[in-house]
Predict the structure.
Amino acid sequence: MAEPVITLRHFFERARAGQLTGVRCRKCGELAIPPKELCPACYERAWEPVPLGGEGTIASYTVIRVAPRAFMADAPYAVAAVKLTEGVSILGRIVDIPLERLAVGLPVRFRPIVRNSQTAIGFGPA
Amino acid sequence: MRRVALVGAGVSKFGVRKATYRDLVWEAGKACFDSVPGVKPKDLDGLVVGSVMPERTAFQSHISSMVAEALGIRPSALSARTEHMCASGTVGIRYAYAFIAAGLADLVMVLGVEKLNQPVADEAVLNMGTGVDREWEAAFGLTAPPCFAFAAQRHMAEYGTTEEQLAMVGVKNHTHAAKNPSAHFTKGATLDQVLGSRMIASPLRLFMCSPITDGAAAVVLASETRARALTDTPVWIRGTGQALDGFQLSSLHEDYAHWPALKRAAQAAYQMAAVGPHEIDLAEVHDCFSIAELIAYEELGFCHKGEAGPFVAEGRSDYGGDVVVNPRGGLIGCGHPLGATGVAQAAEVFVQLRGEAGARQVPAAALALTHNNSGMGEHVVMIYGKEPA
C-alpha cells in the first residue's frame, strides 16, 4: 500500500508551524479532519491536503478538574469540540481564554500547543 | 428463528473488591447456577464472556477458555469473548441470542467481568483512556467524563436543562442502589450531597458519574424447549437492536445532545418486539453519567426531545411514574465494571420480570428494556418480556 497522503506525523509537523490541515477528496470533494485513509463518502483514496483557516466556534466544551496522570498538573483545563468555518469539527485544548468565558458558540482560533517536543491541537481567542 | 429466554441470572458484589479477576468469575457464576437448579455447568453447550481489559488489569488474555475451566463448563457449540468497551456485556448476550435463535446452540451462559481497581489508583483512569481514540483524542488528556460533559453542556445550552436536573438522576439512582445489596454504593444520596460533590468535568460532579468498580454478572440463555423444561418463569428476549455512528468524538454529529444511533437501535428493538416505548414498565439504561440517562429518555421515546430534565424532576422515571428507570441503581449507584454492566442489567430484568426483586420490585412488571452504550455514538438495546410474544 502506498504512503498515506498525510500521516499523523505530517499533520502535527504542519500544526506545529501554525497550519491546521485537512484532506479533501479529489473524487467527491469530501473534506475530512483528522486525516483518514479512505474517503467516508465515496470510499476512494484520492486525498489532497488542504490548509484550513483555523477559525471556528465552540460546539461544546468542558472544564476538566480530575485529569489523567500526565495532565494532573494542568488541571483545571478546558477542552472543546470546535466546528471549523469549513464545516468539519475537531477537538482541542483551550488556551488563553478565561474558563468562565467559555460558552457554546464562542468564536475561537487554532493555535498549536508545543510542549516537550510534542505538538497538540489548541484553540485560543478568535 | 427460535424463541430464546433467560432462565438464570446472578451477580457478584460490585465495589472496590479485594477479589481477583477469577474470584469475581466464580462469585457471579455460582450465583447464576444457584438461580437455576436444573442447569449444571456440564449442561451448557456455550459460553460467551464480555470483558474489556483483563490484559491490562489482570495480565490475562484467552479469557473465555479461562472462565470455562474455572466454572467447569465444556462448550460444544459456542465459546467466545466479546470486547466492545462499555457495551461488551450486552454485545455478548446478542451473540448467545443469535446462536440459540439460529439453532446453533441450546443453552449458553453469558458472563461479564471486570477488575478495574488497581493498587495504584490512577492506573484505572489511565486504563479507561484506552477506550478513547489514542492518537487524536486521548493524547491531549481526554477521558470519558469530558466526552459526556460535552453532551451535557450542549443539552443545557439547547434545552435549558439544569444542574439540578442532572443531579436528580444521581439522587434517584443512588436511592435505588440503597435497596440493592450488590451495588457499589448503598447509602443513598440527597440533592445537596450530589450538588455538593466534587466537580469532575463541568457540569458533571462525582455523584453524577459512575465509579471505578470491580464486579461480575452472569445469565443463562436457553432455547424455548429447554427454557420451558427448566423453569415455569422464563424471561423472553423480545427484541434487540444495535447501531453505531462513529468512534472518534469529532466524527460524530457535532450536536452531542442528539444521539441518533440510540434512536435507531431502539427503533429496531421496538419493531422486532412489536411494542412501543410507552408499554415499557422498567428500563435499565446506561447512566455512565447522569446526562446519558437524560438523553436516553428522549432517544428511547419515553419523552419528547429536550424534555428529559422535567421528566426526571417530575418523578416520571421513578416508582409511580411512567417507567421505572434503573431500579437496581444504574451504573451511578451500582458501579460500572465495563464487561459486567450489560449482563447485570439483564440479571436485574430477570428478577424484576419474575417478581423476585424484593424491596426494589417494580409493580406488575411485564415488559423491560436494557440500554448499553460504548460512547455517545454506539448503542445496544434489548427488550425482554414476561410473555414470549
Q: What stands out?
A: Residues 135-209+239-385 of chain B form a domain with the Peroxisomal Thiolase; Chain A, domain 1 fold (CATH 3.40.47.10). Chain B has two domains: 4-119+213-235, 135-209+239-385. Chain B touches chain A through 33 residues (CB under 8 Å). Chain B has a mean pLDDT of 96.
